[in-house]
Amino acid sequence: MAIVVECPHCESQFTLQPDLIGKSMRCPNPDCREIFTVQPTAATKLINTPEPPSAPAAPPEPTSEPFLVVLEGEAVVQT
Q1: How many whole angstroms separate alpha carbon 33 and alpha carbon 44?
Q2: Looking at the chain, which terminus has fewer C-beta neighbours within 10 angstroms, N or C?
Q3: What is the C-alpha to C-alpha distance for residues 41 and 2, in angstroms, rounded to an integer?
Q4: Residue 5: closest CA among 35, 49, 42
Q5: Is 15:2 a contact under the CB 8 Å cutoff?
Q6: For 14-31, what is each residue's pLDDT tens digit?
C-alpha cells in the first residue's frame, strides 16, 4: 500500500509508504528541498502497490521410497 503526500511548501505530490506518516522528511523536489512532516493529502486513498514476490517454495525432501521412471514407453522402478 502507498499514500499520496503533498509538500506544503511547493505542492509537489508523490507516493510514500504509510509507515512514514508523522515523520519529518525533505521534499524530493530539487527546487524546494524544504523539510516537512509527512501527512497524507485530504483526498488520499491508499494505493495498492504490488507486493514483492515471496521466496520460492523449497523443493520437496527426497524420500527413500521407490519412484517410477518412464523411459521410451517402459516403466522402470528405481530404488
Answers
A1: 23
A2: C
A3: 12
A4: 42
A5: yes
A6: 888 888 889 999 999 999
